[in-house]
Design goal:
The protein is of the alpha+beta class. It has a single domain, classed as 3-Layer(aba) Sandwich (Aminopeptidase). It is built from four helices and seven strands. The longest helix has 14 residues. It is globular.
Length: about 170
Amino acid sequence: MIIRPATLADLPGITEIHNYYVVNTHITFDVVPFSPEQRVEWFHDHCDGQRHRIVVAESGGGKVLGYAATGTFRAKQAYETTVEASVACSPDATGRGIGRRLYQALFAVMENEDVHRAVAGIAQPNPASNALHKRFGFVAIGTFTQVGRKFDKHWDVLWMEKKMTPT
């Protein structure tokens, strides 16, 4: 397995992973699957080569097994040194440490960027994601209760933050 920066050629694999979670879980509040073409703007927003990055885990056969990304937290200029981080693995690649390796690679490239905080909003319950974020130094800062409705149920979102130290 190789962890590397994402390219536009990875977008179909990234989209396939994301769509699995759209259709089958509450962990993303998207409710309609995307085509790769619909995700091109998202891809570019997460690939500025500075604060916003996407890394992928690729199998020996070239299949995207997972991705981790940082993107804009809020569009206002005062928030530009805060990024929102996320990670997702193909459902057949979970539990193998791929998410951990993706976050290791992502945060390693972020060390030299002008980023003060990374935040993550995690739909609850999601003990695996909570534990992964905690392992990387994220701390819980609060829960928005019942803010997302999906599958005819309202879901809570735990917000976590990580102090980043730009060099």
